[in-house]
Specification:
Length: 253
């Protein structure tokens, strides 16, 4: 009899990981854009959360995360069907269609692609409701970029135990699928660790310093700058360590 629990656990972990990564990325970007990033007033170093914006964020995030998970489940149902047939010895792995095997190997790439579509759509919706192109680019290029990249490498690790069932001989090269070379993986790690955080901090520091001369309260602005830098540094370090961990874990595996 097929061990259905194995594939169920893998699929459940994949869905949970996708929801958590995209949810945290969306929340961090929303918190930054609505609380920390706005130029402070004379009284407050950070802006209090707006109730309408918070409800709008929750609605948009829930809709698009659920849509992305539902979209991915279409592929996973197919993989599960063939997985159970192989485990039940009803078919041989060689009988699985090549397209299904290719989709299996490409699934982390498909999941990242679906996340790109969801982030783009959510960014468009948020920009429409707020009337700000800055919101669109911030959501897509900062929160979306980090979340999609992290999701790809996490998916590649979570999905790996399924592959030997379909390729018992280990010859994955028989199927033409997308493969990210180690060089590009290391280059991605370098970008998120050594390039993106300092570039973002430099831009934001310059932005705050340029408004310092016109600020009604210099102390409040400097306090906002300190909070902003701590937030960016903490988020960048967390994202960088997570990416490096999953990239190196994937390479060693």
């Amino acid at each position: 009899m097929p061990n259905q629990n194995d594939i169920e656990v893998i699929l459940r972990r994949e869905s949970i990981a996708s929801a958590i990564i995209n949810g945290i990325g969306a929340f961090m970007t929303f918190f930054y854009l609505n609380v920390i990033d706005p130029i402070p007033t004379a009284e407050r170093s950070v802006k209090p959360p707006d109730s309408f914006a918070s409800l709008l964020f929750i609605a948009i995030a829930a809709v698009f995360i659920f849509t992305g998970l539902s979209w991915g489940n279409r592929y996973k149902r197919i993989f599960k069907k063939w997985y159970l047939l192989i485990k039940a010895d009803e078919i041989h792995p060689a009988d699985v269609p090549e397209k299904t095997k290719r989709d299996l190997l490409n699934f982390p790439f498909y999941a990242a692609g679906m996340a790109v579509v969801m982030w783009f759509s959510a960014s468009m919706a948020a920009a429409y409701f707020t009337g700000s192109s800055r919101v669109f680019f911030s959501l897509l290029l900062w929160g979306g970029l980090v979340s999609v990249t992290l999701l790809y490498f996490v998916e590649a690790i979570l999905w790996r135990p399924v592959i030997p069932v379909f390729f018992p001989d280990g010859k994955l090269s028989k199927v033409h699928a997308f493969h990210l070379p180690i060089f590009w993986k290391l280059l991605i790690a370098l970008f998120f660790v050594g390039i993106l955080p300092p570039a973002l901090l430099a831009r934001l520091t310059w932005q705050r310093v340029s408004t310092l001369f016109f600020a009604p309260n210099h102390e409040i602005l400097l306090e906002n700058l300190r909070i902003l830098e701590i937030f960016i540094l903490g988020a960048s370090v967390t994202a960088s360590i997570s990416l490096v961990f999953f990239i190196t874990h994937g390479i060693t595996k």
